[in-house]
Write a structure and sequence with these properties.
The chain is α/β, with parallel strands linked by helices and 281 residues long. It contains 9 helices and 11 strands. The structure holds 5,10-Methenyltetrahydrofolate (GUE).
Length: 281
Amino acid sequence: MTAQKLDGTATLKAIKAELADRVSKLREQGVVPGLGTVLVGDDPGSHWYVGAKHKDCAEIGIESIRVDLPATATQAEVEAEIDRLNADPACTGFLVQQPTGLDEFALLSRVDADKDVDGLHPVSLGKLVLGEEGSLPCTPVGCIELLRRHDVPIAGAEVVVVGRGLTVGRPLGLLLTRRTENATVTLCHTGTRDLATHVRNADIVVAAAGVPGIITGAMVKPGAAVLDVGVSRVDGKIAGDVADDVWDVAGWVSPNPGGVGPMTRAMLLSNIVLMAEKALG
Ligand SMILES: Nc1nc(=O)c2c([nH]1)NC[C@@H]1CN(c3ccc(C(=O)N[C@@H](CCC(=O)O)C(=O)O)cc3)C=[N+]21
């Protein structure tokens, strides 16, 4: 058996086409969405991600404002840029690319919650816990959207999330246990005693540990859906958390690259458009 591919690249393309229509409707009504990014330092990976986000925006008619600061930038200098973007009406939403090497909680908190396109602002995460409407975190929502668009059943599914990071594992459990998703979630982490036993029971596995190949074929229930979220670099090449032999056992697998990464970008675009539509009323 070979698993069906959960194709994030193709899904990003489809979502961009849908969003382009909505952006042109906004523009007809005089609203021009604009994404701001603040990037600190010269990590090549971070530069690639930010560049990709601006290219995506240009393709669908979203303006962008790019602020690149040197690795020597201080907390106060980054905060000054945040204040500027908070006040700039042309910037309808923005993000501070992580990691910055600075006090990230202070930076996140300083962003106007109404301009939080990442869904990582304390107010946005608090709204998620409280069940109120707000920006949703891009990577975990991208996981759910990727499953939905490939008709993987979520309601009632046993989901094992591997990794408790703030951008994926922690918020994903909150999203998947909403009534609209209705999944049962087990959150595994480095303190989990027997990872294999949990994974073997799962209909959906979300591997977000950042440990190359941590999920192997022998651990996966035949027919399960496996999302490869972890990104590590091994000899300069992207290595995911999912070993190659999982494709022989699983029903669906998201490749890495080409899976959840592009979906993160799709959900960022979707957040920008949603926020502009909301501002319109
Ligand atoms: N404030 C903030 N918001 C983020 O959304 C954010 C962040 N900080 N810091 C880093 C992570 C990582 N991230 C990715 C985005 C796109 C791909 C992506 O599109 N990857 C492609 C290609 C990867 C490649 O070839 O290098 C793929 O998976 O196919 C991956 C990872 C957003 N992040």
